[in-house]
Design a protein that fits this description.
420 residues; Nuclear Transport Factor 2, Chain: A; 4 domains; 5-stranded antiparallel beta sheet; 8 helices; 33% strand; binds zinc ion
């Protein structure tokens, strides 16, 4: 009896340990498998053909690519270095000639040897000024002048970031390794479809391919090449083509209206017609969206349009109304002040600042009350169908796909893992 009880206790303890393991395995920023993936993905190749290698690797996994590097020291010769790597020096590299940039090697030059399945692929010589590449396939020589690029060593790497959102997009994006600036770019890319201040739900997810550009060791710029964002079961994709973002069918993501009139900080209440009004303490329809934000936070117009009202408007306090085309208007209330130069009749652009968050009118704390109206009636902007932007022509779509071709395996992997 006691024996059985002990056995039972043992089993229970094991079960608890196993479930804890499963719990932590599934709730980290990424699973173990993904951590391996990320270390596999987040590395850099000098040859700048990372994805080419990646795709080759995926397509032919038994192929083994090895790269060895040697720094030239006193008394080294090219042959003595290649000997170390068990490579016979190609005769073309021993002959004196204008084209043979391997003929003279200097101390501190870096010689690298790349082999696939034991067979020589490239030999390269790199120093501050030049990179010299010998291609074993066709015995050709190539010289890349590093000094030509503004005298600086411009380099880049493409990285993949992905995560599931646990509480906030910003935190989950930071945890995945994205920088604050890159996170802001992503919010901008999807700003027409996703309101990052209030649409984000637990278990939303994202996968981002970023090209980081370096000047020497300094990270100077990032370009989002591809982004996937699953929001409330809807999957959004963005392909960079000539610095503009398109979906996979070639429609621009840019739309007539941005989802939010404010950069994403935090939000006090969701769109809800049965909301307790903070001052009157009665249920009155709340026809709009409230964005809680510090006083003075810039408010921008969600679309191109013309100001048709500017002034105090009862409980709304300091308000601006903008007309966009014939049937749409947007309203921005409780402002602390207007942006200089705003007046009735003034034309404004999408994302142009029109005023600043405040607490004027019936308001308990600084927030922006925003309304999107169709023929004067408030509507949930998500439920209004807008005309799509102009689709790319078929030639450009082919070009766009070509630009992303080498990344397809990675996009597919992101789609399979981060859009479900
Ligand atoms: Zn409100």
């Amino acid at each position: 009896m006691i024996d059985n009880l002990l056995k039972f206790r043992k089993i229970i303890i094991y079960l608890i340990i196993i479930s804890l393991f499963v719990y932590f395995y599934n709730n980290g920023p990424y699973s173990n498998y993904e951590i391996n993936r990320i270390s596999e993905i987040n590395y850099k190749l000098d040859t700048k053909d990372y994805y080419l290698n990646k795709v080759q690797h995926a397509a032919n996994s038994e192929k083994q690519k090895i790269k060895q590097e040697f720094v030239v020291r006193k008394n080294n010769t090219l042959s003595s270095i290649l000997n170390k790597a068990k490579v016979k020096t190609p005769s073309i590299l021993l002959k004196k000639g204008k084209k043979n940039c391997f003929y003279i090697i200097q101390i501190k030059d870096v010689i690298s040897i790349t082999k696939v399945n034991g067979e020589l692929l490239y030999i390269s010589k790199k120093n501050k000024n030049i990179e010299c590449i010998y291609n074993a396939k066709d015995s050709s020589l190539k010289i890349i002048n590093n000094k030509k690029i503004d005298g600086a060593n411009i380099d880049f790497m493409e990285l993949v970031f992905f995560n599931k959102i646990s509480n906030s997009f910003y935190n989950s994006a930071l945890a995945s390794g994205l920088t604050p600036n890159e996170i802001m770019s992503i919010a901008d890319i999807f700003g027409w479809d996703v309101d990052f201040t209030q649409d984000i739900r637990k278990n939303d997810s994202f996968g981002i391919v970023v090209k980081r550009i370096y000047e020497g060791k300094k990270h100077i710029k990032s370009i989002v090449k591809y982004a996937l964002f699953k929001n409330k079961k809807k999957v959004h994709e963005a392909y960079n083509f000539k610095e503009v973002y398109y979906d996979s069918r070639g429609y621009p993501l840019r739309k007539q209206f941005l989802r939010a009139p404010i950069d994403f900080y935090r939000i006090s209440s969701h769109f809800n017609r049965k909301r307790l009004h903070p001052i009157f303490k009665t249920v009155r329809p709340h026809l709009g969206t409230d964005y809680a934000a510090p006083k003075g936070t810039p408010i921008y117009s969600t679309g191109d349009g013309t100001i048709i009202f500017k002034g105090r408007k009862g409980g709304y306090g300091k308000t601006i109304i903008i007309k966009h085309g014939n049937i749409y208007t947007t309203l921005y209330a409780h402002m602390s002040k207007y942006k200089k130069g705003m007046h009735v009749g003034k034309k404004v652009k999408q994302k142009q600042i029109i005023g600043y968050v405040g607490s004027t009118g019936y308001s308990t704390g600084p927030h922006l009350h925003y309304e999107f109206r169709v023929r004067g009636k408030h509507k949930d902007v998500m439920k209004v169908k807008f005309k799509k932007g102009k689709k790319l022509n078929s030639k450009s779509i082919i070009k766009m796909k070509e630009n992303h071709k080498l990344n397809e395996t990675i996009y597919l992997w992101l789609r399979n893992n981060y859009s479900i």
